[in-house]
Amino acid sequence: MNIFLGIIIIFFSVLGIIYPETALRFEDMFRIRGKREYSSFAIAMTRFGGFIGILCGIFLLFTDTL
To answer: Is residue 65's pLDDT more than 80?
Structure first.
């Protein structure tokens, strides 16, 4: 179970690093209508969260209990 969850977290984290604006739009899908313009800080924090997610996913890959 940890391996599957770790791979899923790593996958979405990598997508958040590569496409931060798409990840932000996905988060706001049901809250905001119309065009959205995100600040450079929001994009940077999304990328930073992606790196943290990758670290958590790698941690889950190498742990035995959940």
So the answer is: no
Cut 0.90: pTM above it: no
How far are the Cα atoms of 7, 22, 24, 56, 61 from residue 3, in angstroms, in the given order? 6, 26, 26, 12, 5
Average pLDDT over residues 38-66: 91
**Contact by Cβ (8 Å): 23, 43:** no
Helix intervals (H) in 1-66: 2-18, 20-27, 40-61
Amino acid at the residue 35: K
pLDDT at residue number 1: 80
Tokens of 11: 């996958």
Residue 49, token pair as written in the block: 């969260």
What lies within 8 Å, CB to CB, of 2 at 6+ separation is 60, 61, 63, 64, 65, 66
